[in-house]
Design a protein that fits this description.
Shape: globular
Order of helices and strands: EHEHEHEHEHHHHHHH
Helix content: 40-55%
Oligomer: single chain
Length: 232
C-alpha cells in the first residue's frame, strides 16, 4: 500500500516536531515536508506529491486560510486545519476555502493518526467540539431560516441555497440533518433503519444536488440554507 504523504505547515518548530514524532510510528504515513508559512506550504504542495496538509492558521507571509484556498483550488492535497479554541474565529473561512476538517493542536496521537487516515481516505473530519462553535458563530447572522435578519432581503447566494435545499427528497434532508450532528454512515443506517449501502447512496446523491465536495461542506450548507437552526 502506498504511504500517505503528509506536509506539516506551522511556524512553531516544536509543534511541527511533535506532530512529526506522532506520525512517524505509522508504517503507512510519511512526513514528506515541514514548512514555516503558508506560502512555503503552497510552493511545496505545488511541486511535490502531497496527500494531506496539516495547516496552522496564523503564519507569516501567507496565512493558513489563504494557503488552503490556493492548495485546494489547485487540487494539490487535502487540508486539515490545526487550531486551538482561542482562535476558532478563523476556521469557518478555512472550511469555505476548502479545508477538509479541523484538528486541535493538543490532540492525542491516536486522534492525529485517525484524522490523517480519515481525510486521506476521502472523509471529512468533523470534530464536534470545534465545528459546532464555528458554524454557530457564522450562522448567528441569520434568523435561523436561511435568510438575513427580517429587515434585510435574502442575498442571491442564500436564495440559491434554498433552491438547492428544495431539490432534496425528504429522506435526503433527514440524512443531511443526521450528517450535521456528526453521525457516521453506520450510525445513520441504524438511526434511520436503512442499509449502510443505501445511506451511502443517499449521501452521494445529496452532495451532488447541493453542489458540495464533502461532509464538512454539507454541514455548512445545512446551516446556511436554514435546514438546521443555530443551537439545534
Amino acid at each position: 500500500m502506498d504511504k500517505i504523504r503528509v506536509l506539516l505547515a506551522d511556524d512553531q518548530g516544536l509543534v511541527r516536531a511533535g506532530f512529526a514524532t506522532m506520525l512517524s510510528v505509522e508504517d503507512d504515513i510519511e512526513v514528506v515536508g515541514q514548512v514555516t508559512n503558508g506560502q512555503e506550504a503552497v510552493d511545496f504542495a505545488t511541486s511535490h506529491d502531497v496527500d494531506v496538509i496539516l495547516m496552522d492558521v496564523q503564519m507569516p507571509v501567507l496565512d493558513g486560510i489563504r494557503a488552503t484556498e490556493q492548495i485546494t483550488a489547485a487540487g494539490r492535497g487535502k487540508v486539515i486545519i490545526l487550531t486551538t479554541f482561542e482562535r476558532d474565529d478563523y476556521l469557518f473561512d478555512a472550511i469555505r476555502g476548502g479545508a477538509s476538517g479541523f484538528l486541535l493542536k493538543n490532540a492525542e496521537p491516536e486522534d492525529l493518526i485517525a484524522a490523517v487516515h480519515a481525510v486521506a481516505g476521502g472523509y471529512a473530519l468533523l470534530a464536534p467540539e470545534v465545528t459546532v462553535r464555528v458554524i454557530e458563530r457564522f450562522t448567528s447572522q441569520f434568523d435561523g431560516a436561511g435568510t438575513a435578519p427580517a429587515h434585510k432581503h435574502p442575498t442571491p447566494e442564500q436564495q440559491h441555497k434554498q433552491r438547492l435545499l428544495a431539490s432534496l427528497t425528504q429522506r435526503e434532508k433527514e440524512v443531511l440533518v443526521c450528517m450535521a450532528s456528526g453521525l457516521s454512515n453506520a450510525e445513520l443506517a441504524g438511526k434511520l433503519f436503512l442499509a449502510e449501502a443505501t445511506v451511502k447512496s443517499h449521501v452521494s446523491s445529496l452532495l451532488g444536488k447541493i453542489q458540495v465536495r464533502d461532509r464538512v461542506q454539507a454541514v455548512v450548507f445545512a446551516y446556511e440554507s436554514g435546514l438546521i437552526r443555530p443551537g439545534e
